[in-house]
């Protein structure tokens, strides 16, 4: 079932099937809501997730277990909004995991510190979280539509967003003015892409496209990635 | 220099968050173990169904027994108070006079001879009158 064909009323039969031991129902529900759960955990503990991606996996898995367990305990009545219910479970599981398993006391580099000070208390409403996640997914698809030369420039995302144009230009072996102008064009191209329907974007996405990772001290090999 | 362009826009913030999300593996699929999630139901279902029925029944039984116990105790506790207002005999340190009341001409048992105030061998209303007078003398 495609994303556009989904409706909340479809969730009830899937949950029933899951509780009856249907693994396919679990996969369908995960296909629908796993991204939402992972994004909720990510937003609640961004620095921890970046430090240890396995931790994000563990908390998300725990959230699914908690969800299935709660559905078994109370088959009736079902939560009115499954999305809000899952977000609530994911938040609670994240807080519990942070309390029981505090992050290691390793110093974060500047990039991570910046991320952890990012707005973490906003997007409290489930609808906002869903909307933001869709925005990021669309943005990811749009990034895949960039040509290789532009993708190489996005690999210098951190330097560029910190306006260290010279550093970015040296890493790319391009004139600084070129990097500036190309970045402006890239942003415009991404904006245009974001205004398109997601289906159109996915049609334009090359099959072998990869997500360009920004170069950071922890990911130096991404510098030459294209 | 275009200062507006130097500001971090909404799109660039989104790109930064997307980069962080990629580092955290946000777009991976959560590794769950479907057999565990789906088989756990069968393991728990018997216990759950047992508790679902007997839990409320047990709780209701305990509450009912508790309420009845309290009501019974209250009922038993009220009985002596009612007898205190009885005309037959007061119940205090003197013992149960009414239990010894045999009537005129009837021989009182040995344990009741102390209520035979007129020493005529029985415990009758004449003795009761003497008993009341003696109590009145004590309270006065």
Characterise this structure.
The complex is a heterodimer of chains A (226) and B (140). Chain A is mainly alpha-helical and 226 residues long. Chain A is built from 12 helices and no strands. Chain A has 2 domains: 8-111, Orthogonal Bundle (Rna Polymerase Sigma Factor, Chain: A); 123-224, no CATH class. Helices cover 66% and strands 0% of the residues of chain A. The longest helix of chain A is centred in the first third of the chain and has 22 residues, at 23-44. Chain A is elongated, with a radius of gyration of 20 Å. Chain B has 2 domains: 41-85; 87-140. Chain B contains 5 helices and no strands. The longest helix of chain B has 51 residues, at 34-84. Chains A and B meet through helix 2, helix 3, helix 4, helix 7 and helix 9 of A and helix 2 and helix 3 of B.
Task: Map the helices and strands.
The complex is a heterodimer of chains A (226) and B (140).
Chain A: H1 11-19, H2 23-44, H3 46-51, H4 53-73, H5 82-100, H6 110-116, H7 126-144, H8 148-154, H9 157-161, H10 165-172, H11 176-194, H12 198-204
Chain B: H1 3-6, H2 10-23, H3 34-84, H4 97-100, H5 125-139
* Biggest sheet details of chain A: none
Name the CATH class of the largest domain in chain A: Mainly Alpha
Q: Considering DSSP H and I runs of 4 or more, what fraction of the residues of chain A is helical?
A: 55-70%
Count of DSSP H/I helices of chain B: 5
Shape of chain A: elongated
CATH fold-level assignment of the largest domain in chain A: Rna Polymerase Sigma Factor, Chain: A
The outline of chain B comes out as: rod-shaped
- Pairing-aware structural class of the strands and helices of chain B? mainly alpha
Summed up, the helix count of chain A is 12
Largest interface: A-B, 52 and 37 residues
Distance between the termini of chain A: 33 Å
- Determine the mean pLDDT of chain A: 76
Helix content class of chain B: 55-70%
Strand content of chain B: under 5%
